[in-house]
Amino acid sequence: MSQARPGATSQEPWRDPAAKPFVRIENITKVFDSTYAVDNVSLDIFQGEFFCLLGGSGCGKSTLLRMLAGLERPDSGRILIDGTDMTRVPPYERPVNMMFQSYALFPHMSVEQNIAFGLKQERLPKAEVTARVAEMLALVRLERFAKRKPDQLSGGQRQRVALARSLAKHPKLLLLDEPLAALDKKLREHTQFELINIQERVGTTFIMVTHDQEEAMTVSSRMAVMDEGRIVQVGAPASVYEYPANRFVAEFIGSVNILEGRVLEQQGDQVRIQADSAGCELLMDHIQPLPEGTPVSVALRPEKLQVTTEAPTAPHNWVKGTVAEYAYLGDVSIYHVRLPGGQKLRVQLTNLARLTETPLTWDQDVYLSWQPGSGVVFPA
Predict the structure, then answer these.
(1) I want to staple 80 with a disulfide (CB 3.0 to 4.6 A). Which of 24, 181, 213, 304 is the partner?
(2) If one looks up domain 8-95+171-251 in CATH, what number appears?
(3) pTM for this one?
(4) At residue 40, what are phi and psi to the nearest 5 degrees?
(5) Cβ neighbours of residue 62 under 8 Å, at least 6 residues apart?
(6) Superfamily of domain 255-379
(7) Which pLDDT value is given to residue 121?
(8) Which of 85, 95, 89, 132 is nearest to 113 (CA)?
């Protein structure tokens, strides 16, 4: 999960009311065969951001990216890049480059020839092409591989060649369509941080499409979560994870437990809830007043739950259950605790000490508890 970067306060132009967006998407709609792939989307992205469009298959994120690239034309709305209306401008006239999921490297060309291809197409002087290629090879640390063909490279190296080729023309905006999808888990995690470092060094605005929530959380300065052609929440990774705008976002980003219930009473900035699904009473932070009897869902992240073998003394926010399933993952242990009513809650415990055996075991009775500020309340 991404953390605040050095100087993050000064690098958050979206918090400045006077800042002008570098990319402005205004009421963009795209329809395919009466289906709204993108439905009246508006979005501002600022200079130097690493912005992610996140969502499941068919949510509209790739269509939106293709409209930014000029590969699809919107049915309505406008796209402005650096203050210029690009809605009807063809792809080759936009200050934009796109890196595809397949990388699309020329197999018969060497690494340096692949990087130089777009520069030669623009008929740049030979000396400038040579200098740009050298600059890009150094940027992605592939100087030793300049003469190799793509089939002589690893997946991560091919990914870096594609990135170097995309940046060689010094685009104002780089679009990345699931660029790490073909890499294995460990290489993908390593490459995510390489992408961040490269983006910070070149200062180019990146917009990346991904369905991988961990990837979006790692690389992005901000993200937009999409569902059925609409943007349902925009924010920094920590904000979206800790304060989801609705139940869909809570369930899509990370793991979450949902307790169903009804409001008993509002107590200042807290609300007392009878959680029928868990058979317990909750007292949760919630500033917006909710009338008595309002059906609600309470989202609790697995790592926010505490586990004890003795009953808590507090009158709220705890429930008794039985360990039904257990998984040891090295850094963390995952428990599924079955409540008396049959619902299972997922609990994640960090393994701070070296373990030779699990502190909890199958069929053991335990108590789960949480703080009033640990969850988010959604009116049903």
Answers:
(1) 24
(2) 3.40.50.300
(3) 0.88
(4) 55, 55
(5) 177, 209
(6) Nucleic acid-binding proteins (2.40.50.140)
(7) 87
(8) 132
pLDDT per position as a tens digit, 256-272? 999 999 999 999 999 99
Can you point out the beta strands (E) in 139-197?
173-177
Are 341 and 278 in contact by the 8 Å Cβ rule? The answer is yes
- The domain limits of the chain are 8-95+171-251, 255-379
DSSP H or E stretch at residue 326: strand 318-328
Asked if 293 and 275 touch (Cβ cutoff 8 Å), the reply is no
User: What does DSSP say about strands 76-81 and 230-235: parallel, antiparallel, or unpaired?
Assistant: unpaired
Helix (H) or strand (E) holding 61: helix 61-69
Q: What is the pLDDT of residues 298-322, one digit of tens each?
A: 999 999 999 999 999 999 999 999 9
Q: What is the pLDDT of residue 356?
A: 62
Residue 122 in contact with residue 169, Cβ under 8 Å? yes
* 56 touches 83 (CB < 8 A): no
